[in-house]
Design brief:
The structure is a single chain. The protein has a single domain, classed as Beta-lactamase (3-Layer(aba) Sandwich). The two termini are about 40 Å apart. It is an alpha+beta fold. The strands form 4 sheets. Strands 5-4-15-14-13-12-11 form a 7-stranded antiparallel sheet, sandwiched between helices. Strands 1-7-8-6 form a 4-stranded antiparallel sheet. A two-stranded antiparallel ribbon has the order 2-3. Helix content is about 30%, strand content about 15%. The chain contains 16 helices and 15 strands.
Length: about 425
């Protein structure tokens, strides 16, 4: 702990950030998991790991709460992230919807940020850690995991191992009578599948909660007799509406993609990601997935990685598939990820403030934005972001433990803040 605190202080000092009295309390300040044993109301468990304030500790310790499988970095060279001219966020302000002008540094604190890192032209210009996090800490990434899945699936598509026009049932016959049986692979990639699924994170009776039991994220209640792993859960989903008509955010879609990729490649998901991406990326640290009750990786939400390695992934996409002079993904795949999404199917269902303010769209398991820089992002609930701005040549990573799965401070304010940072970098 002393080494971690010393590292934290050094990093914050170099970033020009001082401790603030109005910052959310850290896991240590909350007394979480302190003592032998900790008091009952301070214990983080499988049952409360996704709830506030327990997620302040849990999101840096998921493998201690759930079974997990490592993604080892291997013995290859680490892709360099050199230091650039520091960016002082204390002097940068942003106008947020419904708010007066706010310092970006203030927004970071209010957003329960655990790590914040900015790359400009491949160089670190800002890096800060909070809530006892360090550069070595793997952090829960939630749905940022989906975009890692997409990078591998798009590679298999380019190699001819997966046909985007083919029905899902060609690769996974077990899904033939489910909602996915006659959906095309591309419709699953774009989340335009007509499936009866309500991804309501706050409703314990929603389909998301049943999915969470199968994913291993939540322990089931007494008497629950539904499917208890992803392979048995996915075939139970039923069709609702027509495929291809509208964007409908469904985490189960990504689990279907992972299953297709396993069948098309003949490899377990973690091995597939490791061989096709992780070991080629030049990462600095091992990563891991937590596992469902049948020891299968949660492809849609279970990836845990360090902030710097998240930045390496974003920088590799920005550089059209290369990093530190090495080819990781093909240029075609990376350029496909950087393309804008189609707002028409997106806006049929999603027209509230979060999306109207920043102009979201979606394709291939990536979010895109309507701003003049045509930015793209991997996004996860509770404030996990990898934001890529091709015009400003900028990558922003934010890892957070926001009490709310979805909030204005993340869904609306985050992309606005990042765009302000991008313009400040371009003006230097």
């Amino acid at each position: 702990m002393r080494r971690g605190i010393a590292c934290l202080i050094a990093i914050l000092s170099s970033a020009g950030v001082a401790a603030r009295a109005d910052a959310p309390k850290t896991a240590e300040e909350l007394g979480l998991m302190r003592g032998f044993p900790p008091p009952a109301d301070k214990q983080v468990t499988h049952a409360n790991l996704a709830e506030a304030p327990y997620n302040r500790w849990a999101f840096q310790h998921m493998r201690e709460l759930l079974p997990s499988r490592a993604l080892e970095r291997g013995d290859g060279p680490v892709a360099a992230l050199p230091r650039g001219e520091p960016l002082d966020l204390r002097g940068l302000s942003v106008d947020l919807p419904g708010e007066q002008s706010m310092k970006v540094s203030t927004w970071m604190y209010r957003a329960y940020t655990d790590a914040f890192l900015v790359l400009h032209r491949g160089r670190i210009v800002y890096e800060a850690y909070f809530n006892d996090m360090t550069p070595e800490t793997p952090h829960q990434m939630m749905s940022v995991s989906k975009s890692f899945c997409a990078a591998v699936v798009l590679t298999l598509i380019e190699e001819g191992k997966i046909d985007t026009a083919a029905p899902v049932s060609r690769y996974v016959p077990e899904l033939g009578t489910s909602a996915y049986g006659d959906a095309s692979v591309q419709q699953v990639l774009d989340m335009t599948v007509g499936v009866a699924f309500d991804e309501d994170y706050r409703d314990p009776k929603s389909e998301w909660r049943r999915f969470g039991y199968a994913l291993g994220l939540y322990p089931p209640p007494a008497g629950y007799d539904g499917p208890m792993n992803l392979y048995s859960y996915l075939p139970t989903l039923r069709k609702s509406g027509e495929h291809g008509e509208a964007f409908h955010y469904v985490s189960a879609d990504t689990e279907v993609l992972g299953w297709i990729a396993e069948r098309a490649s003949g490899a377990q998901w973690s091995r597939l990601l490791s061989e096709r991406l992780w070991r080629k990326l030049g990462v600095e640290h091992d990563a891991y997935y937590w596992l469902d009750p049948a020891a299968r990786e949660g492809v849609s939400a279970a990836l845990n990685i360090s902030a710097r390695d998240a930045a390496r992934f974003g920088q590799m996409i920005l550089e059209r598939g290369t990093l530190d002079g090495r080819r990781v993904l093909s240029k075609t795949v990376a350029e496909r990820i950087l393309q804008p999404g189609d707002p028409a199917p997106f806006n049929r269902f999603y027209q509230d403030r979060w999306y109207a303010e920043v102009g979201y769209a979606y394709h291939d398991q990536w979010w895109t934005f309507r701003n003049e820089h045509k930015s793209v992002a991997a996004l996860g609930i509770h404030g996990q972001h990898i934001y890529i701005d091709p015009v400003a040549e900028m990558v922003v990573v934010r890892q957070s433990s926001d009490p709310q799965p979805e909030s204005d401070i993340s869904e609306t304010d985050g992309p606005i803040v990042y765009h302000v940072i991008a313009k400040a970098l371009m003006a230097r």
